[in-house]
Amino acid sequence: MAASYREQWDDLRRRYRLAIVGFLLFPLIPVVGWALQGRPGGSRILLAFALGSMLLTVIASFRAGFFRCPRCREWFFLDGPYRNSFTRKCLRCGLPKWADQG
Ligand SMILES: [Zn+2]
């Protein structure tokens, strides 16, 4: 019986979602700036919010990009210097993305 890869794909989905959440926070930066306008310490809070959303996006994107293939345990989106974040299969072993088994 082949092992199920569901847990590993769920982990990739979580990584994608976290990157999307971080990215969706960007449009809120001016809104937060407007809401904090004139308040003591507002610029520091705004800076922390902006940097936090950027860091969240960058870190989550890197984590998604360095996802290990559930079958071969190599980088799913990397093959040496070649990188393809939109590939539909593992660049090392060819496992289709989201395949339950194989
Ligand atoms: Zn693989």
Describe this protein with a few key phrases:
mainly alpha; two-stranded antiparallel sheet; 50% helix
Please identify the structural class as seen in this structure: mainly alpha
Structure summary, number of beta strands: 2
What percentage of residues falls in helices of 4 or more residues?
40-55%
- How many helical elements? 3
Q: Bound small molecules, which ones?
A: zinc ion
Strand order of the largest sheet: 1-2
What order do the helices and strands follow? HHHEE
Radius of gyration, CA atoms, in whole angstroms: 18 Å
Strand fraction equals under 5%
* Overall geometric form: elongated
What does the main sheet amount to?
2 strands, antiparallel
Secondary structure layout plus pairing:
Layout lengths: L5 H19 L3 H8 L6 H24 L12 E2 L2 E2 L19
Antiparallel strand pairs: 1-2
Keywords: Membrane, Transmembrane, Transmembrane helix
How would you explain this protein's 3D organization?
- The chain crosses the membrane at residues 16-36, 42-66.
- The protein has a domain at 6-67.
- Helix 1 packs antiparallel against helix 3.
- It has three helices and two strands; from the N terminus they run αααββ.
- It is elongated and about 60 Å long.
- By secondary structure, the protein is mainly α.
- The model has no long low-confidence stretch (mean pLDDT 93).
Structure described in brief:
Keywords: Membrane, Transmembrane, Transmembrane helix. With about 100 residues, the protein is mainly alpha-helical.
